[in-house]
Structures are given as C-alpha cells and as structure tokens.
Amino acid sequence: MPVPEDITVDASVLDRLFDVVTSRRGTDPSISHSARLLSRGTGKIAQKFGEEAVECLIEAVAGRQHELVGESADVLYHLIVLWVDAGVTPAQVWAELDRREGTSGIAEKASRPGSKR
Residues 34, 21: contact at Cβ < 8 Å? Predict the structure, then answer.
C-alpha cells in the first residue's frame, strides 16, 4: 500500500517511540501497555515479540500487504520494548547498521565468531 503524498515518513519515529516506551518504565501497568509489558519481565516481552513476528510472517506469506504493514508496526513496537528491557538503545542498533553498510551479507555473516561459513 503506497504512503499518501500528504504524509511525511520519518524514521526518527522509532527513536520517539523508544523515548515513549522508556518513559513508561516503572509507571502504572494498569494504564500503559508498555509499562505492563515491562513489568512482566524479559521472558514475557520476548514471547510477545515472537508472537508478533510470527503474525508478521503469516501475513507476508499470505500476500496480505495491508495486514503486513500493521503487523510490522507491532513487531517494531515489541522490539523496542525488548530493547528498553535489555538496556539497548536505538543509537547502538543504528551504529551497527552503519558498520555493516556496504558489506555483503554473506561476508558479514562469515566474519562473525563461530560462523559456519
């Protein structure tokens, strides 16, 4: 589904979402979904992320683009909750992506310790 021309798409939305999720840490779980997830611990957060990832894959395989967009947003949100829980920042992930830019995916994977090449 194309993005309407009157909508500005800005990747910094992920940074803003990270800030919102971070601000919910330790707040009342009854009024914030992020706070509820964070209060349930890493295992539950990881489980929820996995469920959303599977739903995303199902929509991709089914060719349902509109649903894939929604599920992708859910995956990104739950990934950010996982980052907040683990103490990982978007800047760390962006730096890793920058480091990998211009490197073949095959070469990058082969360079990892313990890679089976």
Answer: yes
